[in-house]
Amino acid sequence: MTNKTRDILCSIIVLAFGAAMIYFVKDVRRVIRSDVGSAFVPTLIGWCIIATGAAKLLFSIFTGLKSENKKIVFNQDFFGGVGTIVLMVLYMLAFEPVGFVVASAVYLFLQMLLLSDSTNRHILVFALVAVLLPVAVDALFVFVIKMPLPVGVFGF
Amino acid sequence: MITAALANVFNPVCLFLIWVGTVIGIIFGSVPGLSATMAVVLFLPMTFSLEATRGIALLVGLYMGGISGGLISAILLKIPGTPSSISTVFDGGPMAEKGEAGRALGVGILYSFIGSIMGILALMFISPMLAKVCLLFGPAEYFSVAVFSLTIIAALSGKDLLNGLIAGLTGLALSMVGMAPIDTKVRYTFGNYQLLNGFDITVLLIGVFAVTDIILAGFGRRTLSQRLEQKKYQLKGYGISMLEFIQQIPNAIISSIIGIIIGILPGIGGSTAGLLAYTAEKSRSKHPEKFGTGIIDGVIASETSNNAVIGGSLVPLLCMGIPGNTVAAVFLGGLLVHGINPGPLIFDKSGVYVYGIYFALIVASVFMLIFERMGLRIFAKLLDIPKHILLPIIMIMCCVGAYSSNSRVFDVQCVLFFALLGLLFKCFRIPSTPLIIGFILGSMFEENLRMALQASHGNWMIFVERPISLSFLVIAVVFCTYTVITNLRGRKQAEEEGKEYHEPEEGEL
Question: Average pLDDT of B443-468?
Fold first, then answer.
């Protein structure tokens, strides 16, 4: 993918977003006569987004900069990135049913494992941090701040 | 009256309560998701059993510590501990990246103190006069202030104005989710009742600033340990020389004035004050291109103004009983419980307590300066924790912070949504700061536009017929035009030189 292709793709998403903004408030009716109504500002923002997206699209197509046609080199660790996202999704899904302490302990351990490499992978340290930190945070919230965090099926 | 107030504040119990309040406030302010408001709310019931001055002194300490504590995580972790510290991230974060975390923290703490003192002085000496000016502001003026504040987007968009606009408009769009102001019509909730109140600013901040960075760290995990070695910090005094201090006097004065004015105007808040002061300093600076790369000017502008808001927000509260922000509203509750009725007669009826508040604020500022400086070495030690351990811990704290903002798991899930949005922005080289500005100002923009139009029976001329409103609109147009022209000129120059105009940010995919 080149910079130009990326900008064109971005413009298309922005145009679609602007159109969706306008579409989803089209049925919102005005109830007070002197008022512009609840659809006015979202519609205005929607049109502004479309105008900006269109300007970006035109600029992306007609720009003459050589750098815009440069290929983007992806020098990233996709396993690390996607793995982090997957772990976050699972953690957030488990936050309520499993409970804060257990979900956090498992997430912490796996995330530290994922971000570490063979030179700095200390399993015992990871396990200790993964257990002690959620317990300490939970105790702080329950006993000091008096705001219980989700307990989940295990009851803690 | 002043002597009685001095005696009330400068006794061991009261000083101890201010100290406790300041320290706890700093802790609440430094943890993303916990806020000054939360600290004041939690400790409010405890003040009921205390004598009035002592109870208020505790609340003052919490308020002061809570606002200033936000700079710690803003600089060290690039996560604003409180919304007021958003603009501290812009230069504080890069300073920490360059190994100047200690200097950034020291300067931030010192100018938080200076901003606080300036705000308190304004509260003490010019509050009645300022309160009268505040009364001249109606919906039309607030709308124009919002329009003017939105022009910050142009200034903070960097070299790519279109991308900045996209981010700002997306922020505005996100602020439209939920029940509309005035007629409570439901928009963009798609049948989800959890969205009726819209998104929480804390959740957006945590997602875009913190969790996006953690995901990016996942993509760049091979270099995590290398990055750690580069980040050393230095600590010497408050990190600023006498010459620099003198050079920064105009910055501090202008930022304080902005903070005080924004504080007086109800409903705007410290985050807007910080952003306005940052933009003002960037526009005034001889080297605007250095802003965002890690210079003390940006940290000073942000921290001075957001702390000056504290004194400013107490002006309408004490003189008219109007709370300028959420913390001030809780504070008002505390005053009423102790039989202090804010309003024009407060100086006659409860003068001792008013002076007590002034002195408590000054003491809390001094405590904040001392204890934050003492803890600076400990705060900066955070950077010594290996990134592969620190980042997952931050993630846990982010989720706890998001959950505690409304006690619902939905906010935790929204954090991930905003993190992915932040990631998408990085992919498309769109800056995320204008997104926050748009989101903060969105509701203020819409609500005041509609209220002003209702008051004028649909006459749009109300915005140009009122002098204060017109002034803000004219300034907004001039500022925007200037920024666009500067931007186009820079782009043209780059094209002539045949160089790539956009410089990819660090961590960009």
Answer: 90
| Chain A: closest CA distance from residue B167 (Å) | 10
Residue spans of the domains in chain B: they are: 2-497
Collect all residues of chain B within an 8 Å Cβ-Cβ radius of residue A152: none
Taking the domains of chain A in order of start, what are their residue ranges?
Answer: 3-69, 78-144
B24 vs B79, higher pLDDT: B24
Which of A111-115, B52-56, B447-451 shows the lowest per-residue confidence on average (mean pLDDT)? B52-56
Listed in sequence order, the DSSP H helices in B383-466 are 387-406, 409-427, 433-455, 462-465
With CA atoms as reference, the chain B residue closest to A119 would be B225
Q: Classify strands B178-179 and B186-187 as parallel, antiparallel or unpaired.
A: antiparallel
pLDDT given at position B383: 67
Q: Do A88 and B170 touch (CB under 8 A)?
A: no
DSSP state of A28: P
Contacts of A128 (CB under 8 A, 6+ apart): none
Optimal mutation site among B395, B404, B413, interface A, most CBs of chain A within 10 A: B395
Predicted structure pTM score:
0.79
Q: Write down the pLDDT at residue B508.
A: 41
CA distance B204 to B167: 13
CB burial string B411-445: b at 16+ within 10 A, e below: bbbbbbebbbbbbebbebbbbbbbbbbbbbbbbbb
| Helix segments in B80-223, DSSP class H | 86-97, 101-125, 127-135, 139-150, 152-156, 161-175, 201-205, 212-219
Please tell me the predicted confidence (pLDDT) of residue A73: 59
- Cβ contact A119:B223 at 8 Å: no
C-alpha closest to that of B318 among B296, B348, B286? B348
Closest Cβ opposite residue A129 in set B389, B397, B449:
B389
Record: contact B218-A77, CB cut-off 8 A: yes
Residue B46: the pLDDT is 77
Q: What is the ipTM of this complex?
A: 0.91
The candidate with the shortest Cα–Cα distance to B142, out of B452, B464, B474, B440, is: B452
Among the residue ranges B212-221, B319-328, B429-438, the one predicted with the least confidence is: B319-328
Taking only the tens place, the pLDDT of each residue in B196-236 is 999 988 788 888 888 888 898 888 887 776 654 445 555 66
Asked if B163's CB is within 8 angstroms of A115's CB, the reply is no
Residues making up chain A, counted from first to last: 156
Percent of chain A with pLDDT over 90: 55
Round to whole Å and give the CA distance between B190 and A24.
9
Exposed, middle or buried: residue B228 (CB in 10 Å: 0-12, 13-18, 19+)?
A: middle
Distance CA B413, CA B434 (A): 23
Using DSSP, state whether B231 is helix, strand or coil.
Answer: coil
Nearest to B157 by CA among B286, B287, B282, B304: B282
Query: How does DSSP classify residue B307?
Result: H
> Among A79-93, A115-129, B122-136, which is the least confidently predicted range?
B122-136
Q: Do A25 and B185 meet the contact criterion of CB atoms below 8 Å apart? A: no
Whether residue A85 and residue B218 make contact (CB cut-off 8 A), yes or no, is yes
Measured CA to CA, the distance from residue B435 to residue B431 in angstroms comes to 8
Sign of CA dihedral B404, B406, B407, B413: negative
